[in-house]
Write a structure and sequence with these properties.
heterodimer, A: 426 residues, alpha/beta, TIM Barrel, nine-stranded parallel sheet, B: Rossmann fold, seven-stranded parallel sheet, 10 strands
């Protein structure tokens, strides 16, 4: 009776931006729960099908059978230094190409938006690079760029991590110094700084006034410094546990912000956490997750060697050796950064914390979007949000990625081999 | 009048869904010949809708050439309120099947001119060629749609003020705040349903047993509006065991004795 001949296309052949698309036979992540529900998309937005039905009397032009996949909001990476041989902070003569390359490759890992991250650099580099990384809508060319995350140079020398010490600076003249060092900050979304530095509170206030998220990290700060920063508007902690004072019971340091009672009412302090299974111990992940789940944001903090084959690679002025899924300074046993892509970080986090799948997915989508103040359009499958989402199986393997309702990545190996694109039902 | 007595509400749901499927499929609806179905809301028909969705997903029934008319809707309740009947119909049935939106008719309780809305509804039923099968449930006080005790048995689609009893019964759906319960509703009349070619009424649960007794063993009476269907040439009551508690043994035995005949109604599907 319903023997409509289903036309079968590859997902990437579905190019129907104006059309009404219904994703069916799927489970979608909405309101912190995975529910069996169809997902309707038109003009790049997720829409309320009830209104289409009763107000417009409209029906789907295209139906896509998701073969029981989970649909999650696309992942958002707030901290990523590069990948696939590209280092955002060093490849200054090919910034646009590098960004484009990474943004395209990230799609395969379910990342549909990200904040390219610059490590501590000389003033000239900021002036050269920052104007070249613009906020940019995603699509087949790659993931959306949500603005730059500048990590440093106003950080602590003692907690510099892999940042070059000679470029670390003080805010001698407060915000004026910051502007002089960075130059154009119109496309900067997040700034990581050490809150114990002189004049930081006033600088935070000014940054927050300009809509920039201030993250505290690479710091020797005690809890009071952290709380003062939060009271002045800081709302994020950079890669929790890494490059900060370890938790001490008489001075819990920045880690103490997770359980501080000095946080202004209604405010959430978010924290990025590297869940590659190497940079943060499983027990530390569990402590963070159990103490302050609402603020948890999974970040990769990936470096240029992410996505490269095993072996030694010359990247910028460094030689990096990829061995056993870890990146070392070539010829040594010194780890030089994270190379686990976002989907892997989420799987590690899920495995280590045994949290609900919904939480793991939201920690990489809704949480970062809320932190950036864009959860009305990103990191959610609510009606009117951007149709940026991914199809996953129950092992959280990414099957396909969609930006603004368009298929931008399709995994040929694992999944859903083809989809049924059917004519409307009338 | 027929009375089909089944085990429980699940079997009532399955049986009635099979009957609806058979009626529609036997009708062989097409672009020039729509099957016109009257539909209820509430908890009783949920099991039927679930089964119909299941049959649809299995490819056994299509609603492509079915037109539907719903019995009633609250006045002034936003359409996306979880208690609105638009919300119910979309979530419990329409979004799961292949019905064409133009063929769905639910009274608009937010219409500017409610009387005109009701008259238009009657017109549309007429235009569609009348209702082939009207499915209904009843309240414990024997009301069908919002035709509460005392409603005229020849009433048509109209605005109806709801009885205090109904408001109190519905308060649980509105955070137990009776002031939030809509005070009036739009409803088809008893006469509107009487005009259908066939009427199928679902009754489940002990709390509806007195109403079932009033519906089929007592006389026609506007204080139990469902009793009007004693006068309808083709009414099918489908109930569960619990709903028969107030019936006479004789009545129950008589209709159970006819079960063999009734089973033929859903044969061959």
């Amino acid at each position: 009776m319903l023997s409509q001949q289903a036309t079968v296309f590859a997902l990437s052949q579905v190019e129907l931006p104006q059309r009404l698309i219904k994703f069916k036979n799927c489970r979608i992540l909405r309101n912190h729960t995975i529910i069996r529900e169809d997902l309707w998309v038109r003009n790049g937005k997720i829409i309320n099908p009830e209104k289409i039905f009763f107000d417009e009397k409209g029906q789907a032009h295209v139906q896509i059978d998701c073969h029981n996949a989970i649909i999650s909001p696309g992942f958002i990476d707030l901290q990523i230094n590069g990948g696939y041989g590209v280092d955002f902070s060093y490849d200054i003569n090919s910034v646009e190409d590098g960004i484009l390359k990474v943004s395209k490759k990230l799609l395969a890992h379910g990342v549909t938006s990200f904040c390219p991250t610059l490590v501590t650099s000389p003033k000239e580099i900021y002036h050269q690079v920052l104007p070249k990384i613009k906020r940019k809508a995603g699509g087949k060319h790659g993931a959306t760029i949500l603005g730059v995350h500048v990590e440093g140079p106003f950080i602590s020398i003692e907690k510099k991590g892999a940042h070059p010490e000679n470029c670390i600076r003080e805010l001698e003249n407060g915000f004026d110094t910051l502007e002089a060092v960075y130059g154009d900050i119109s496309d900067v979304s997040i700034i990581t700084l050490a809150p114990e530095k002189p004049r930081v509170p006033e600088v935070i206030s000014e940054l927050v006034r300009r809509g920039i998220i201030v993250s505290v990290g690479h710091s020797m700060a005690d809890l009071i410094h952290g709380e003062t920063a939060v009271k002045h508007g800081a709302s994020l902690i950079t890669h929790l546990f890494n490059a900060m004072m370890p938790f001490h019971h008489r001075d819990p340091g920045l880690v103490g912000l997770l359980a501080s009672n000095e946080i202004p009412d209604g405010k959430t302090v978010y924290f990025g956490i590297i869940t590659d299974g190497i940079h943060t111990h499983g027990a530390a992940l569990r402590i963070a997750y159990r103490t302050h789940p609402k603020g948890l944001i999974i970040v990769t903090d990936a470096i240029s060697a992410m996505g490269l084959e095993e072996g030694t690679h010359r990247i910028g002025q460094y030689s990096i050796e990829v061995r056993d899924h870890k990146a070392y300074v070539a010829g040594t046993n010194t780890l030089c950064g994270s190379i686990a892509p976002m989907d892997e970080c989420i799987r590690v986090f899920l495995h280590e914390t045994q949290c609900p799948i919904e939480f793991a997915l939201e920690a990489a989508s809704l949480h970062p979007a809320t932190c950036l103040g864009i959860s009305d359009r990103k990191g959610t499958l609510n009606y009117e949000a951007d149709a940026d989402f991914i199809l996953l199986d129950d092992n959280l393997i990414v099957h396909s990625a969609w930006i603004a309702g368009e298929c931008v990545y399709e995994n040929n190996k694992h999944s859903i081999p083809k989809v049924d694109v059917q004519p409307p039902e009338n | 009048m027929r009375l089909v007595i089944l085990q429980n509400s699940a079997t009532v749901g399955e049986w009635s869904a099979k009957y609806v499927m058979k009626r529609i499929n036997d009708f062989k609806p097409g672009p020039d010949k729509y099957f016109v179905l009257g539909l209820p809301t509430g908890s009783t028909p949920l099991a039927m809708y679930k089964k119909l969705i299941e049959f649809h997903k299995a490819g056994r029934i299509s609603f492509k050439y079915v037109k539907t008319f719903n019995m009633d809707e609250y006045v002034g309740l936003p359409r996306d309120h979880p208690e609105s009947y638009h919300y119910y119909m979309w979530n419990e049935f329409f979004k799961h099947i292949d019905i064409v939106p133009e063929n769905v008719h639910i009274l608009d309780g937010n219409a500017e001119d409610l009387v005109a809305e009701c008259n238009l509804f009657e017109e549309k039923i007429k235009e569609a060629g009348g209702i082939e099968l009207f499915i209904g449930g009843i309240g414990p006080d024997g009301h069908i749609a919002f035709n509460e005790p005392g409603s005229s048995l020849t009433s048509r689609t109209r605005v109806k003020t709801l009885a205090q009893d109904t408001l109190e019964a519905n308060a649980r759906f509105f955070n137990n705040d009776i002031s939030k319960v809509p005070q009036s509703a739009l409803t088809v009349g008893v006469g509107t349903v009487m005009d259908a070619k066939e009427v199928m009424i679902l009754i489940t649960g002990a709390h509806k047993s007195f109403a079932l007794y009033k519906a089929i063993e007592d006389g026609v009476n506007h204080m139990w509006t469902v009793s009007a269907f004693q006068m309808h040439p083709a009414t099918l009551f489908i109930c569960d065991e619990d709903a028969t508690l107030e019936l006479r043994v004789k009545t129950v035995k008589y209709f159970k004795g006819l079960m063999g005949v009734h089973s033929k109604l859903i044969e061959g599907i």
